Amino acid sequence: LKLQLSPDVISFSSVMATLTSGHEAEELMAEMVELCSKNSDMRPDTVAYNTLIKVWGRSGDEIAGERSEAILNQMLDVYRDGSVDVRPDDVTYNSVIHNVANSNVPDSPHRARRLLEQMKKSYESGIIAVEPNIITYNSVLDAFAKSGRAESAKMAEELLFNIEESSDKGASDIEPDLYSYNIVINAWGSRGVATKAVHILDHLTSRSIEGRTSLTADVTTYNSVLHAWSQSSDRNAAIKALGLLEIMLKLAEGRADLNVQPNAYSFSTCINAFSKSKFPRKARQTRDLLRRMKKLSDDGQKNMRPNIYVYTAVLNACAYTFGRREEKEEALSIGLETFEELRQSGIGVNHVAYGSFIRLCRTLMQEKDARRNHFITRAFRQCCSDGQVGDYVLRQLRPIPDVYASSLKAYIDREGKVVKELPVSWTCNVCENRRRSNRKPTRRKR
Question: Which of 144, 367, 369, 370 could cross-link to 152 by cystine, CB 3.0-4.6 Å?
């Protein structure tokens, strides 16, 4: 028996869902539109268009938000012309707003807000069958949080409290969820305004105590506040971060509330807060936090196992220690011990760790110390062998003219400028280099 099978919109949409390039997905969509004149089973429907928008979303292309909006407008035009199978739905709008939020363009918050209002009007006029939900509002909040603009965190907070107030008064069935509050806390945290982040946490805790148990702060909430303190200019930010970490540990003690149990990110963020501070003996404090992590990990909390970010934060705290000679000597001792521990851990030393180690040897060892150039030269050679020679490593090496010249003599001119490309084997494992090489040229639609 010979079966006569031909592709249809479902098979084309299934293929499209496997793509990672928005441009390729649009080419496939154009092929579907062309074929549908001969075969009505090929006519793109709402699912096909939603799939196209989602492909743009995961493509990472800088024009993903722009193209997603254009596709939405195309759907609306086709629907108004009588094609009921192309009616936008909540998935359409939520996906477009999500893509706009992640587009990293200056006006993304305002575009996301405009799309929200458009969705409301489309629902009220009967163009779409669903109204905005909390996923929609969270996508708009996310657009404000990710924009990094001075006023964005304030606008995100205002929108959050407007949603909350409408829900409390019964004017709307949409109620903020925990993710909504976490987004706004993170928005303030990214701006380094820790007091605002703490205010939202306190407000969230109050609502939870009032009976809204779904709004109980979790580890993501607390970590976002820790991040806020790590970015804060408050002179006591590190101490306040440590205090919050202790609260998390206390809440999770005896398995009372495992939802707030600190993880490696919690500790590394607190360590980072000390690293950036002018707190005396900060190297010792970060070393003690690292030891606490290892103890908790050894006791069975596997999510507490120190990672490369924890070790680099401790090395940074040592490398950027200032003050009295005895404090610098202690930081040097801790830095050497931590770097050796990292090398033996099996985690793998990255370019930031190598750069911080070179810096701490350069700044904390006296020039007459015979170990200084020996340690730095040995570290740089290992760095080359590991393929971790990045810009940060070179910046830390350059202030040591004799080591810099002898290590890079075949690649620099008399002024120390790199004039010949470094061997690929030296740089191949630097994350910043991989991110650059993975960026694909962007084509704009005409």
Answer: 144
pTM for this prediction: 0.83
Cross-strand bridge partners of residue 412: 418
pLDDT one-digit tens code per residue, 189-205: 989 999 999 999 999 99
- C-alpha span between 405 and 112 (Å, rounded): 52
**CB neighbour list of residue 386: distance below 8 Å, 6 or more residues apart:** 348, 349, 354, 429
Q: Each residue of 350-368: pLDDT tens digit?
A: 999 999 999 999 999 998 9
CA-angle at 403, arms to 397 and 409, nearest 5°:
100
d(CA 192, CA 202): 17
DSSP H or E stretch at residue 62: none
Residue pair 216/228 in contact (Cβ under 8 Å)? The answer is no
Confidence (pLDDT) at 1: 41
Residue among 185, 274, 267, 265 at smallest CA distance from 224:
185
Provide the 3-class DSSP secondary structure of residue 82: coil
User: DSSP labels for 297-331?
Assistant: HHTT-GGG---HHHHHHHHHHHHT--SSHHHHHHH
Which residues touch 92 (CB under 8 Å, ≥6 apart)? Answer: 46, 49, 50, 53, 72, 75
Q: Say how far apart CA 327 and CA 281 lie, in whole Å.
A: 6
